[in-house]
């Protein structure tokens, strides 16, 4: 723990501790169910439980802009009642631990930890720029609940993170992240039981540039927080290097089943 703290720096450490303590506190209070429904926040727009379209998504993000502004004012020292009320209200709502941690990781990927809590963080362009080059999905939220979780997690980060990181807590950046994450993330499975346990998803932007093939020439495996790739067979000069998006399942699937799964998950027609 001490070595990680030294490597991460004080601002990053403070950010993770703030989020983890908030999640733990809400869980102990019986409010941390993880659904992140945000029913206590009356400024969140109600959306029917269908996949939101582009206009609905933009309207939803716009609907929390005033709340976000009030929270920032409170974090910057304002004692006005509307500002303090916005901050208090969002901290009373239930977090979604997984999505909150995901957005925090994305935020920290865009900044360098400062050497002290008062030194501003600076942008790290490489990883974020690679992410933005990925093909976006204009409607990345599967349901209105998923969208609401994203909105609530955004407000939670504004309320929780060190003030030096707040300029990097951006609604437009989080929407861009969701649009790229939708069809470019890697499934994370357990390593010690043949991958029987599914743990979630993660985005490794550079690795996401691999295209899919049902007869891949590149193998992959996760090692801790990183992925390793290697050529699994000989390739011709100029041949594209491809991985399987199906994680080996393609061996036991027929053509129709492979095409159906690829279209449902990654939204492309496999030739």
Provide a quick synopsis of the model.
Residues 167-246 form the SET domain. The model is unreliable at 37-47 and 112-125 (pLDDT under 50).
The largest sheet is: 2 strands, antiparallel
Distance between the termini: 48 Å
The helix fraction, in percent, is: 40-55%
Order of strands across the biggest sheet? Answer: 1-2
Task: List the keywords.
271 residues; mainly alpha; 2 domains; two-stranded antiparallel sheet; two-stranded parallel ribbon; 10 helices; 6 strands; 45% helix; 9% strand; SET_dom
What this model shows, in words?
InterPro entries: H3K4_H4K5_MeTrfase (IPR050869), SET_dom (IPR001214), SET_dom_sf (IPR046341). Residues 167-246 form the SET domain. It comes from Venturia effusa. The chain is mainly alpha-helical. It has 2 domains: 1-27 and 50-115 and 125-182, no CATH class; 210-266, no CATH class. Helices cover 45% and strands 9% of the residues. It is built from 10 helices and 6 strands, in the order H-H-H-H-H-H-H-H-H-E-E-E-E-E-E-H. The strands form 3 sheets. Strands 1-2 form a two-stranded antiparallel ribbon. A two-stranded parallel ribbon has the order 3-6. Strands 4-5 form a two-stranded antiparallel sheet. Helix 4 crosses helix 5 (81-91) and helix 4 (65-75) packs parallel to helix 8. The protein starts with a helix and ends in a 5-residue tail after the last helix. Mean pLDDT is 83; it is low at 37-47 and 112-125.
């Amino acid at each position: 723990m001490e070595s990680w703290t030294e490597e991460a720096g004080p601002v990053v450490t403070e950010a993770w501790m703030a989020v983890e303590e908030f999640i733990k506190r809400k869980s102990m209070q019986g409010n941390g169910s993880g659904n992140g429904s945000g029913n206590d926040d009356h400024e969140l727009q109600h959306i029917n439980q269908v996949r939101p379209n582009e206009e609905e998504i933009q309207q939803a993000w716009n609907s929390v802009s005033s709340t976000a502004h009030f929270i920032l004012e409170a974090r910057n020292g304002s004692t006005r009642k509307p500002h303090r009320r916005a901050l208090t209200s969002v901290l009373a709502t239930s977090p979604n631990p997984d999505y909150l941690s995901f957005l925090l990781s994305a935020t920290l990927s865009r900044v360098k930890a400062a050497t002290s809590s008062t030194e501003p963080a600076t942008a790290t362009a490489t990883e974020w720029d690679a992410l933005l080059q990925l093909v976006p999905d204009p409607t990345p939220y599967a349901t209105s609940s998923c969208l609401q979780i994203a909105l609530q997690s955004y407000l939670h980060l504004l309320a929780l993170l060190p003030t030096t990181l707040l300029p990097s807590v951006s609604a437009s950046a989080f929407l861009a992240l969701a649009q790229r994450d939708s069809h470019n993330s890697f499934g994370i499975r357990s390593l010690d039981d043949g991958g029987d346990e599914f743990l979630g998803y993660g985005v490794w932007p550079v690795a996401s540039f691999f295209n899919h093939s049902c007869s891949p020439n590149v193998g992959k495996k996760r090692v801790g927080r990183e992925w390793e790739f290697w050529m699994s067979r000989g390739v011709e000069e100029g041949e594209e290097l491809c991985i399987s998006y199906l994680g080996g399942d393609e061996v036991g699937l027929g053509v129709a089943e492979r095409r159906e799964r690829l279209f449902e998950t990654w939204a492309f027609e496999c030739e």
